[in-house]
Specification:
2 helices, ATP Synthase, domain 1, 5-stranded antiparallel sheet, 10 strands, alpha+beta, 2 domains
């Protein structure tokens, strides 16, 4: 039996990275890994940095490096209207919406650029290690976030970043 199709969206402030039909959305939240299928219980939750996978009806999978955000699952009449063919405004359906501040398709990640960003952030963290003034604390937090983003990108492309 074929999996049921529902609507999925992955949106950043710059662009909608994915809008279409899905058979599963796999994401990581602060409470653990989450797989969303058609008919999922409605929910709103967080998305922690990691890889989001969107499985499609043609058995392909799109993978995105997501640096945090939120998700909403709506299962109600018309939820997938306009995104899934044949779903009317009165048909009970499911829609998953992921809102991310920063996200990118795994296939578009430049490993050399991510390595350079990791090295810059590591160097900056080392230079800031002894600063405990307010500005130093802020700069260190920014460098830590940059390091985490670079390591996630490298992990996503399989070139030695932190898991």
């Amino acid at each position: 039996m074929a999996p049921e199709v529902f609507a999925a969206q992955l949106v950043t402030p710059e662009a909608a990275l994915f809008e279409g039909e899905a058979t599963a959305v796999i994401s990581r939240t602060s409470t653990g890994d989450l797989t969303i299928l058609d008919g999922h219980t409605p929910l709103v939750g967080d998305v922690v940095p990691g890889i989001v996978r969107i499985e499609r009806p043609d058995d392909s999978t799109d993978a995105y490096c997501v640096h945090g955000g939120f998700l909403q699952v709506a299962t109600e009449p018309g939820a997938a209207h306009g995104l899934v063919e044949g779903v009317s405004e009165t048909t009970r359906s499911t829609r998953v919406t992921l809102l991310a501040g920063i996200a990118e398709p795994v296939g578009s990640i430049d490993a050399a650029r991510a390595t350079a960003a990791r090295d810059r952030a590591s160097t900056q963290l080392s230079a800031l290690a002894s600063r405990d003034d307010d500005e130093g604390v802020l700069e260190r937090a920014q460098a830590e976030r940059a390091l985490a983003r670079a390591e996630l990108r490298l992990s996503a492309v399989g070139t030695g970043g932190a898991p």
